[in-house]
Structure formats: C-alpha cells, structure tokens
UniProtKB/TrEMBL annotation, chain A:
Top-level taxonomic group: Bacteria
Any one of the GO BP annotations: transmembrane transport
Pfam families with a match to the protein in the record: BPD_transp_1 (PF00528), OppC_N (PF12911)
Keyword terms of this UniProt record: Cell membrane, Membrane, Transmembrane, Transmembrane helix, Transport
Protein name: Peptide/nickel transport system permease protein
Biased composition (Low complexity): 1-23
Sequence intervals crossing the membrane: 65-87, 132-156, 168-199, 247-273, 293-315
Lipid bilayer topology: Multi-pass membrane protein
TrEMBL record, chain B:
SUPFAM superfamilies recorded: MetI-like
Compartments in which it is found: Cell membrane
Keyword Ribosomal protein assigned: no
GO cellular component: plasma membrane
Record's protein name: Peptide/nickel transport system permease protein
Membrane topology: Multi-pass membrane protein
Similarity annotation: Belongs to the binding-protein-dependent transport system permease family.
One biological process term in Gene Ontology: transmembrane transport
Transmembrane intervals: 101-122, 143-163, 175-196, 231-261, 281-304
UniProtKB keywords: Cell membrane, Membrane, Transmembrane, Transmembrane helix, Transport
Automatic annotation (TrEMBL), chain C:
Signal sequence, start to end: 1-19
Domain of life of the source: Bacteria
Source lineage: Bacteria, Bacillati, Actinomycetota, Actinomycetes, Micromonosporales
Domain Solute-binding protein family: 84-427
Name this polypeptide is given: Peptide/nickel transport system substrate-binding protein
Length: 337, 314, 511
C-alpha cells in the first residue's frame, strides 16, 4: 500500500480504525457517508475494552433515533420471519375482479393489477429484502475482511496486489457494476445477492486493512509475534477482536445500502423474479399504473425507505458509540496528501 | 507535490488496466456462448459467424485482452451486436443527456445543501441544525426512484405541471428541456443534497474549531467577516472536491432514474444493452464510465493537493 | 439444441409483424372532417420500444417494422382489407401449371437516393433472403428461382403450386426490396434506403428516428413533411404525451385506461381484433401431460375471461381456437367452460395427484408473466401447483428447444393462412411442435388441406383438424388480443390495420 495511505492513518491518530484513506477513487456515495461528528467528541476508541457491549447498549438507549431504528428493525425481523402468517391474504391470491382497488377496509394498501392484496405482498416481501441484505453483506464481509486481513497483516506485494484489486472494484459506480454482473449471470435472487456482495466487498477490505495496520503495531501484538505465536492465532485472538468495532459499524450501514441496491436492481427487473414479491419489483410492476393507482407506487417504496432509514439510524448510532473517530472514506481523503 | 501527482498518475494507470480487465472478463462470465446468447431471437448462422469472427472469441484469452485494450486505447470499443454501430459513438451520443441531467442535479443539490449545511454548522444544535440532520437522514435513506415515482404522481399526475418523463435536447428547446429535466434532476439531486449537507456541515464545523478562526475571533473581527473570509473559504475546498466526485459518480450512477424517466443517457444505454444482451455496448459503457470516474478522481486529487488549506492559509 | 431448432425458434419470433389476410376490418377515421387537411407538418409517433436495427431483412422486431413500413416497398402489398394488390409490381400473370409467376414492375420508380429500382434489385433482395437464410427465407420455401429477363420484369418459378405466393412476397416489409449498395456499405442498419413514401433522415439511438418525405415517391405524395418516431416504453407517458400534444399518434396506450379514453373522446382511440393469438402448451413429451385427460383438465380449470382481463385488461377476446372471430377461417368451437369440478374429475381419471407444473414464461412478453400468475391461481383450485419460471427470451427459446419445460405461454403473431395457424405447430414433428403433440388424424388432415384448392373443402378440412386439436388440448388457446391505437384529433386519414402495419403515407395533420 502506498505511503500516503499509511501516513494518513497515522495522522488521524486513530488506532481504533481510520478508514483507509487510499488514494484510489471513490465517490462519496451513501455508503461512505457517516454523519459528521464534533471534532472534540470522544477520545480514540479501543474497541476491545471491557464493557463495550454494555456501554454500547446504554448509549443507544439514550439516543431516541437509535431506539426508533432498533424498534423498527425488530418489527421488520418479526415480519421477515412471520410475514406469511401475518399477511391477511395470500401473496398470489389473484382476483381479477378486484384489480386496482384503492385502499379500503378489506385491502388496507389496496390491490394490484392482478387483484392481489398489496399489504400482504409488502409484508411478505420484507423477507426477501432482509435476506438479500444479510446474505450480500455477509459475502462482502467474509471476502472483504479476509482480503483486508491478509493485505494489512502481510503487507508487501500481497497488500499491493489485493488492494489494487479492491481499487479496481471501487472504480465502478456501485449500481453500474451490480447491473453489469447481473447482466452476465442472468437476473434472479442469487445473482443479485452475489452482485451486491461483490460491490460492497472493497469497503470492508479497506476498513479491515486500515484497522489491522493500526493494531499490528500495538505492543501486545508485537509481543505475540516475538514469542512466535502463529499468524493465524494472532489474527484470530488479537487482531480480529480489535477491529470488530469498525466492522460492526460498517456492516450495519452497508445493510442499508445493500437493501437499497437490491430494491434498485429489482426495480430494473433484474432482481427477484415474479411471482415472488419484492418491494423494488412491485414498484417496477406498478410503473404502468403510477397515475391510476398511487398505492402501487407508494407502499412498497415507503417500506424500502423505512427499512433503510432504520438501518441507517442504528448504524449511525453504533458508529457514534463504537468508533466515533472512524473516518468515512471521503473524509479520510482530506488528510491525504 | 510533483511526486504525489506522478504517483497518483501511475496508480490510476494500474487501476485503469484492472478496470479494463474486469470489463473484459465480464464477457467471459456469460454462461454459454455470448454471441449465441446475444443473438437470441435474431439468430441466423451468417450473422452468428460474422459476429463470432469479429468478436475474436476463438483466440486465446490473453490475445483477446491485449487486442481489446489496444483498440480501447485508440478509442475503438468495438461495434454493437445489435445495431452494428461503433460503441464509442453510441456512448458519446448519450453524453449530452446524462451530462445535462447530472450537472442540473448537482446544481440543485448545491442550492439546497449549501445554505442548509453552513447554517446548521453555524448554529449547531439549533432548529435549523436539527432540520438539516433530519433532511439529510431522509435523503440518504430514501430510494431516488421512489422519489421519482412520487414526483411523477404529484407533479405530472395530480398537478399536471410537468411531463412525467421523456427528453428534449437542451440545444433544441431549452424550455422543453428544463421542464423535462426538473423531476429527474430533483430526484437525483435530493440524495446528492443530503450527502453534501452533511459534508458541508462537518467541514464548516471543523474549520470553526481551528486555531486561526479562534484567533480571528479573539482579535475582535466580526463574526460575519470571520465566517466569510476564513471559514467558508477554507471549508469549501474539500466541498469542491466532493462535488466534483459526486458529479463523476452521477454520470454512471443514474441508471434507475434514467430508466424511470426515459432519459436517453449513458445509464439507460447500459440498461438497454443489458436487456438486449448487447455485450460490446455494455462493456463500452461501463468502461467509459469507470474511466471518466478515475480521471475525475485523479483531477480532484491533484487539484486538492494544490488547494490544500495549509497552503492557502499562509 | 440443433441448429435447425435455433433457426426455427428465431422464425417463430420473426413472425411478429407479418401481415394477415383474414377478413380485416379496417377502421376509417376520416370522419372527423374538421381539418381541411392542409399539407405539411411533422407527425410524431410514440412507439413502445426501439428498433434493434433498420435492415428489413434482418430485423425481427415489430418496432423496426413500424418505421420500415413507411420507408420500404414490396412487390405487392395488402390493402386495407388485407387483399394483396399492386405496389412495385403493377400486374402479374401466372402460368397454367401455377409454377411460373411473371411480375411487371412499375415504371420510373427510384430509391430515395435517386438510383432507379429495377428487376435486378428485386432479384438481389430475394436472393439475399434465400441465400443468407434471413428471417423471411421460409416464405420462399417453394421458390425455385427468381430472374430478371429485362429491367421491368421479374419471373418467379416454383417447385410446387403456391396459392399464397402474393402474401409471401408482400405480406410485410421483411420481404422489402432493398438497395444493393446500401446493404454492402452496411449503412442499411441505421440509414436504410428504400423507395417508400418516407426516407430515414436521422436516427438518434435511444431517442428518435426522423423520417422526411420522399419527394421521388412513385405513389401519391405524402401530405406530411415528415414523421418522427420516438421510443416511449411507458404507456402512461405515451398517453400523457399524446394528450399534451407532443405526440400525435401512439400504439402504446395503458390498456386499463382504454375504455375511459374511448368514452372521453379527447383523443381518438380505436381497438380492432388482431390475428394474433396467445396460448398455453403442455409438454406432451413428459408425464403426465402425455395424458389427454390431464391436458383437458387444465383446459377446464382455466377461466379465460379472467386471464384475458389480467393480461390485456379486456383489450382482447377470449377464444378456444386459434383463428379470431371475423376471419373467414374462423371456426366457432368452444367445448371448454370454466369448470373446476370437471377438471378435478379428469385429473382423478388420469390418476394424477399433487401435480406440480413447471410453467415457463418470458419477461420479453410481460403479458405471459401476468397471465401465468392468474393461471397459477386457477390451477391451484384443482390441486395443481404451478411453479412459474420467468426467463429471458433467449434462454426461454433455448429451454423450449431442449424441451425443458412442463408448459409454456406464448403467442403467435400475424398469421395469415390456416396452414400457418396449425401445420408447423401441431403436425407430428412440425417445426414449432416443441410440445411434442402427435395425432395421426390431425397429421392427415393438415397434409390434405395443404394441397386442397377448393376453398370450401379446405375450410372444412381445417375445421376438422382444429376440432381435434382443441379436443386434444394440444394448444390450450386463450385469447386474441386487440390492436389498440390512439391519435390526436388533428390527425386525418389514418387507418388502423388488423395486420398492425403502421402507414402514414395518406395522413395529414391539421394545424
């Protein structure tokens, strides 16, 4: 990795995890964005400190937006798991005589172009969104952390090669790359998860690498190295727990963006295929009826919005507590020269 | 400074090579025979043979890749499977639409974000500050295409003030262009605006905390003078670069909005290429956007090195 | 997938936009005589998508033909009633053995670039189609040779009598007469040169194709200065544009709004039955669909009215045979009614329980996706679980060719002769018989009908065949969609055609 990057993280003086201020290009997309924090906020965090969990929970409890976000997420989880039992009607109960009916007592969210109950479909579709979000971020996390660990720990050519690879992936606008990947693999649930996973991998690699670089120089790690502890053991026992905080923050924020990306792909008809319901897909199918049937455009979109908002609120709050000095990639750029 | 530029340049070249490799490999990922798949319903043996021959898929991978890069360097991105036209000219044709949409969206975003960001930083903790935070949280979380749909519903459907979609070239009919660009630009700009609001706010806050600002205030300069002369000037430097990068990312990143509003830009070109399985156009458009993106970033970095606050401060 | 299968599959699609010669109702909309028909002006037409390319012999997209209809000519062409009449050829004679046709070309016809159109161009065009096996090649199946004894004469010799030859040589612009130099330069893909009423002036990909009047046109001079085709995928937008006056014609109206639009009378909207049909085919090469009772059970389980409503918002007519009402070949036969009990009973007879149907549809034709969801709901009632598989069309065709499906939904567009409706689809081993239907009785009838010259006898033969096909539920026919088009009140002289050919040559625009 370039000297510029190393210097930047040193400048930031944040062992807990300056995001990699790599000189590679990156748009300040939503994924990079974390809310601004007062400069005089907290001291640098040592994530592995005892009581982190309790401290986190306590802090979150006193942050109303975070509480709201958490409540919404829990509700979503319930809906995601039990959607089909909560839904008042079957998701594919077609009734053409009831098509395009506005919201009413029988159908609180109205009916769609095939007379299906929109509320039921919105509820059941929560599972797809959560599933895609979790799996794709899981992929990004697994691959990204592995790459970041290897690059940060071993340095040298491995670092250079791996991180240049991540730079390359970072050079594409997120959705464009996802669309291109889906285009070659064919549309569907699995390819959407893979595509979104690939797209968000570099972020995790960078966050991990930057944290590893910082942890590597700590006394206890050096000590472990000097007494000949194996690399794998050091990484697992000492490094991973110490970089958990920035990863948790990144994960929660990435979930929001992964869900947005899935919705966008589905809206382009490249995600989940009918008759399975997905919020983005419902908007796509409802496009022809925007002006005739507002409820087809409104409710699935609102569901996406609320979900993403909840993840963002919780993610922001987590970051404030766990890793307040974590620089967003775009902000870290400023300390680079 | 010079060394930095040189190193960034070299890095960009390396990354760009990687980008060409990824774009090139996309075609290899197509399950089965990409030419066969691309032709799909338009299959006939002669077209197939011609396309196969022209795409050079029978040659060794390395040779194919080198030839792809070689051609790309001369501006030749191949020809469309579908129409037989050169990909480069197809992509360039779409630039005015995308460019005018992106620039309008960013201008709109600035118009909203600048006052909001500066005000909320100056009056940290005030009502404006809270409003700004709510706004930016909203903007970052809302899907832009949903905003687009709601915009169509309201301004085209209920009120009938604006056309629901479509495109008129700026050069053909400025008024027509303006009425068509309003909704998509606002939908895109909303997201950009909330990103910029946060950014401007934190940037201004940071400068406010700097020693020289405190010194200036201590010297008894009026707050407005301090703000305008010291704070804004220095706070805006990073903002300029972020705006530039935003602009670059919009060129390739407004696929969904372009599709929703039938805006014939690069994003929709990509989408149409996906639908038609026109792989050379897909590759060309993606490569073009990524290159543009890299160049903009390079430019921003170089500019930034020149505009560094510590230099302007003196 | 063998090559012939691939070509066959491609042909199935190439049929899009073919002309029909059934009894066509043409709708004269000239009645609104407010306009004095003052000449000039450019009409903007919104079509639902972008042509893939403008080479008439290579494209198979209907969007291309909407444009090319106004740019190219054919030797003969269908009139408003879909009877074949003169175009580039003014007259023709047939030898007594029906094997030699001699066409006399119109004098003084030129391409829009000024070069003369002669018999050599006709020979070149036809040979191009035949030799390069282009989309319309099958229309020349019985053509032995095409020659040009002199610049004004074309002689076509056949291997067998072909009563349909005129329809084959002029049914649609896929058999247009093209210019050799235009083809060889490759310009034909975006700047085709024809002899028709308009000529392509510019093509902005993703946006518009602009046509200007061809002043050298041999027929009556078009009144319009030009026609601009814009590609508007979203029907709501197309309608909005039509209302707003940005567009004066479109065939992409939101189906759910058509009845209200007709009533409102703000714009002219016309719906006319087309010759297309959509159907469900079950794979008879697979158990249990080889059992006629299972297929009939499915036919009884379907509520066609509901399917039609879901797929086309009522802009279609449910039908249990292929040929639409109004055609002279129409055969009124509808043995199936929506009867779940009957369906369950038939399934019981077949000993089938807990059946899962793998139903293949394609996003290329969204109405198949909609219809499939309704069908799934209806079949669920009789205990059949439907797994809908939505594929890209390329993939879809591949799976169809390989026989990897339990059933599929698709349509046939623009067929003309009953032979085209039945033979290739239902004859044992027929080119498009992907669902492996085989009934010797039907085979014999279809073979016989091919050679019968007496129209009455032929019709009877086809009716017997059709009855058997419907009874066997070889295809489970669903509906015939309507042609739906709308235009501004300023437009005069436009006629909706059942073959979906879009002709602007006689249209005027009031200002």
């Amino acid at each position: 990795m370039s000297a510029a990057g190393d210097r930047a993280s040193a400048d930031a003086g944040t062992p807990g995890g300056a995001a990699d201020p790599s000189t590679a290009p990156h748009p300040p997309t939503r994924a990079d964005l974390t809310s601004p924090r007062p400069v005089d906020d907290h001291p640098p965090t040592r994530a592995a400190e005892a009581g982190t969990l309790r401290r986190t929970l306590t802090a979150l409890r006193h942050d109303p937006p975070a509480v709201a976000g958490t409540v919404v997420l829990l509700a979503l989880l319930v809906v995601g798991l039990a959607g089909q039992w909560l839904a008042p009607a079957g998701i594919n109960d077609v009734d053409v005589d009831q098509m395009l009916r506005p919201p009413s007592g029988a159908h609180p969210f109205g009916t769609d172009e095939l007379g299906r109950d929109v509320l039921s479909r919105v509820l059941v579709a929560a599972r797809v969104s959560l599933q895609v979000g979790l799996v794709s971020v899981g992929i990004a996390l697994a691959v990204g952390v592995t790459v970041g660990l290897l690059a940060g720990w071993y340095g040298g050519w491995a670092d250079n090669l791996l991180m240049r690879g991540m730079d390359v992936l970072f050079a594409f606008p997120v959705l464009l790359l996802a669309v291109a990947i889906v285009a070659v693999l064919g549309p569907g649930l699995v390819t959407a998860m893979v595509a979104i996973g690939v797209v968000y991998t570099p972020i995790f690699a960078r966050v991990t690498r930057a944290s590893v670089l910082a942890v590597r120089e700590q006394v206890f790690v050096r000590a472990a190295v000097s007494i000949g502890t194996s690399d794998l053991r050091i990484l697992r026992r000492h490094v991973l727990p110490n970089i958990a905080a920035p990863l948790i923050v990144q994960t929660s924020l990435s979930l929001a963006f992964a869900i947005l990306s899935e919705a966008a792909l589905s809206f382009l008809g490249l995600g989940v295929q009918p008759p399975a319901p997905a919020w983005g897909r419902m908007l796509y199918d409802g496009r022809g009826f925007i002006t005739d049937a507002w409820w087809l455009g409104f409710f699935p979109g609102a569901a996406i919005f609320v979900t993403v908002l909840a993840f963002n609120l919780v993610g922001d709050a987590l970051r404030d507590v766990l890793d307040p000095r974590q620089l967003t990639v775009s902000e870290a750029r400023r300390s680079t020269r | 400074m010079g060394r930095f530029v040189l190193r960034r340049l070299l890095q960009s070249v390396v990354v760009l090579l990687g980008v060409t490799l990824v774009v090139f490999l996309l075609l290899q990922l197509v399950p089965g025979d990409p030419v066969r798949v691309a032709l799909g319903t338009r299959f006939d043996q002669q077209t197939y043979d011609a396309l196969r021959e022209r795409s050079g898929l029978d040659r060794p991978l390395v040779v194919q890749y080198l030839s792809y890069v070689g051609h790309a360097l001369t501006g030749d991105l191949g020809v469309s499977f579908r129409s037989g036209q050169p990909v480069t000219s197809i992509v360039l044709e779409r630039l005015p639409a995308t460019g005018s949409l992106s620039v309008t969206a960013v201008l709109f975003a600035l118009l909203v974000a600048f006052p909001l960001g500066v005000l909320s930083a100056m009056r940290s903790g005030s009502f404006v500050d809270h409003a700004a935070r709510v706004f930016s949280q909203f903007g970052v979380s809302v899907p832009d295409f949903w905003m687009g749909i709601m915009g169509i519903l309201l301004f085209a459907g209920v009120l009938g003030w604006l056309p629901p979609s479509g495109y008129v070239a700026l050069t053909d009919d400025p008024a027509g262009w303006a009425s068509h660009v309003a909704l998509p630009a606002a939908a895109v700009g909303l997201v950009t605006a909330s990103i910029l609001t946060r950014f401007i706010r934190s940037s201004v806050l940071e400068v406010l905390a700097e020693d020289y600002v405190r010194t200036a205030e201590a010297k008894g300069l009026r707050r407005r003078v301090v703000i305008v002369r010291h704070v804004l000037r220095n706070a805006l430097i990073p903002v300029v670069t972020v705006v530039a990068v935003q602009l670059a990312s919009l060129v390739g990143g407004v696929i969904v909005i372009e599709v929703l509003f039938a805006w014939p830009g690069v994003g929709r070109l990509t989408y149409d290429a996906v639908q038609a399985r026109d792989y050379p156009v897909l590759q060309g458009a993606v490569l073009f956007v990524a290159t543009l993106f890299l160049l903009m970033n390079l430019l921003v970095d170089v500019l930034y090195a020149r505009l560094d606050p510590r230099i302007t401060l003196r | 997938m063998t090559r012939s299968r691939i070509v066959a599959a491609a042909l199935a699609v190439a049929l899009t936009g073919l002309a029909g010669c059934g009894a066509g109702d043409s709708v004269d909309v000239d009645g609104d005589a407010t306009a004095g028909g003052s000449a000039g002006g450019t009409l903007t037409a919104a079509i639902g998508g972008e042509p893939d390319q403008l080479d008439p012999h290579r494209t198979s997209a209907y969007y291309s033909f909407e444009v090319l209809e106004n740019v190219y000519d054919t030797l003969v062409e269908p009139d408003a009633d879909l009877k074949m009449g003169p175009a580039l050829a003014t007259r023709w004679t047939t030898s007594s053995d029906q094997l030699t046709w001699t066409f006399t070309l119109r004098e003084g016809v030129t391409f829009s670039d000024g070069s003369p159109l002669t018999s050599e161009d006709v020979v070149y065009s036809y040979q191009r189609i035949i030799r390069e096996k282009l989309n319309a090649a099958y229309k020349f199946a019985t053509v032995k040779s095409v020659t040009a004894p002199d610049p004004a004469t074309v002689v076509v010799t056949l291997t067998a009598p072909t009563p349909n030859l005129l329809a084959n040589l002029g049914g649609f612009k896929g058999v247009a007469i093209v210019e050799k130099s235009n083809v060889e330069s490759g310009a034909i893909k975006t700047r085709p040169v024809g002899s028709g009423p308009f000529t392509v002036a510019s093509y902005t990909s993703g946006d518009t194709i602009k046509l200007t009047r061809n002043d050298a046109y041999w027929g009556q001079k078009p009144k319009l200065d030009g026609v601009t085709f814009t590609f508007v995928k979203d029907p709501t937008v197309a309608l909005q544009n039509l209302r707003g006056g940005e567009v004066q014609w479109t065939d992409n109206l939101p189906p759910q709004q058509v009845p209200a639009l007709k009533e409102a009378g703000e714009v002219a909207v016309t719906t006319t039955p087309s010759t297309d049909y959509w159907y469900l085919a079950l794979n008879e090469g697979r158990e249990p669909y080889d059992d006629v009772n299972v297929r009939r059970a499915v036919a009884f389980a379907l509520d066609r009215e509901a399917i039609t409503k879901a797929a086309k918002f009522g802009q279609a007519t449910a039908n249990q045979t292929a040929i639409p009402q109004g055609s002279s070949w129409y055969y009124d036969y509808s043995p199936y009614r929506h009867d779940p009990d009957q369906a369950r009973q038939l399934l019981g007879q077949a000993g089938v329980k807990g059946l899962t149907l793998d139903l293949m549809v394609t996003s290329e034709y969204p109405e198949t996706v909609s219809a499939a969801q309704v069908i799934a709901a209806q079949l669920k009632e009789v205990g059949i679980t439907v797994k809908i598989r939505t594929l890209d069309f390329a993939q879809w065709l591949d799976e169809q060719g390989k026989g990897n499906f339990g059933g599929f939904l698709l349509g046939w567009l623009g067929n003309i002769d009953p032979d085209e409706f039945y033979y290739a689809q239902h004859r044992t081993g027929g080119t498009f018989n992907f669902h492996k239907y085989s009934n010797p009785t039907v085979d014999t009838l279809l073979d016989q009908a091919r050679t019968q010259t007496d129209e009455g006898v032929r019709k009877q033969t086809y009716e017997r065949a059709a009855k058997q096909i419907v009874d066997d539920a070889s295809y489970i026919y669903l509906y015939n969609p309507d042609v739906v088009q709308g235009w501004s009140k300023k437009v005069t002289g436009y006629q909706v055609r059942t073959d979906r050919a879009i002709r602007f040559r006689d249209v005027a625009l009031a200002r």
